[in-house]
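[audit] Reproducing an earlier prediction to check determinism. Same input, same settings, fresh worker. If the tokens differ from the archived copy the diff job will pick it up downstream; this log only records the rerun itself.
[audit] input (513 residues):
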Amino acid sequence: MRARLAVTLTLFPSLILAGCSQSPGTYSSYEAANGAIAQTDGERYYGHPVSPIHQVASEPVSTFAVDVDTGAYTNVRRMLLAGQTVPAQAVRTEEMINYFRYDYPLPDDRSAPFSVTTNVSTTPWTPGTRLLRIGLRGYDVARSQRPPANLVFMVDVSGSMQDPDKLPLVKQALATLAEGLRPDDSVSIITYAGWVETLVEGSHDPEEIKAALHGLDAGGATAGGPALSMAYDLARAHRVPGGINRIIMATDGDFNVGLSDQKSLEDMVKLHREDGITLTTLGFGQGNYNDAMMEAVADLGNGNHAYIDSAMEARKVLDEELSSTLFTIAKDVKVQVEFNPAAVSQYRLIGYENRALAEEDFDDDRVDAGEIGAGHQVTALYEIVPTGEAGWTGPRKYAANQPTPATGNASEIATVRLRYKLPEGESSRLIERPVPATLLAAATRPQGDMAFAVAVAAFGQKLRGDTRLGRFSFGDIENLAGPQSSYWRQEFLQLASLADGGRRSPWSSDRGE
């Protein structure tokens, strides 16, 4: 079925889009929640200060929403491989860490959708501090066992998508996804430029889907808002009760909306989120890439955001990790860590700056948070100062007027709490895990899997300009990560070398170079 809709003022008065010369200032509603917009060589990013230090005596509780997006890592990779300078605003350290898989155990059963792992090491860049790692791993779902999917591909075919790393790669990526679908999955395809066109509606035939993708060409202006409205209409029309109902938006993000129209866009995404239709954004290209919009829209849509810079990355996200990408096993997942002042005096969370929540948000089921897909992993690292160590800040003048933390029970470092809802649920469930002080006493230099996670965290923070890393260098990061066997981890070592000015990696022989 093919239908064309001309974009006119009368058809979509609340979603008329501004031209491509739009100023970053029109993103103010996203800025309020996510920080300031930075525009670098035509690309747009949210900028956030590095997470601050907190005193446990006055701020013992840290709360944030989980994040399984990986777009920041692949976007940074694209820049480094092209010999470009990475703007600090483009780096979200949690997405760098969560790009990789770690050796977290599977949950014992599906009564809780994920396992919780904690461990502690010393900090390679700051003597006297420790690193607390919190790891979540969702249960796996085989492709044959996941629910049937109703997918709507929403493809940007505007003039800005003509480059080889845009529409040609989109076609290849979505064809990869189509090849991995089951007979009971359906796909609709909408394209948008100066008009919106439905190319395929509710098809179960991979060949029909791939043929429609093969015929796509780029040209014209951008009409993202009307296309999204039509995509939701199609998703509703082919809804699978109890199944996966998701829109997959493929674009460079350059479907700029004006200030009032953006609010309409937000409201539309939130409304359909509550109706069970989720939204994944796949970013492509460079030069005018709108990372700020892509991440924000995916977050609002209870989906995930990935940046596709190669056919190999497309296969990773849309084939090897398809169940994780499509099938949500827990929604509105929040993490809250309460530190024990008898054991910890100061802390800082590495990354998650745009995922921070107020303490009271943790128990408020109305507050939106992050989603975890089947097999997804989430890692968070806290740098902590054990009570009695010097720490980052000196003593406070009136600290003596407060109860002495050391008089408390120091058998636990902290308590980790997680709240989540099941995909169809409205009331959250609670998981609570104490972190025993024995982990603090036994902490040694990070080894193995922990060492690699810490190395990736340091890599992200160094690109962000985190001064608390001191003299810890990219070479130190490579040495900490050590030789790796998997392709993706080997590639990380290459990126660290490129960030260090192209110096040859000490582990290059292990990478077959």
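[audit] rerun output stored. Observation attached for the diff report: The longest strand covers residues 328-339.
[audit] end
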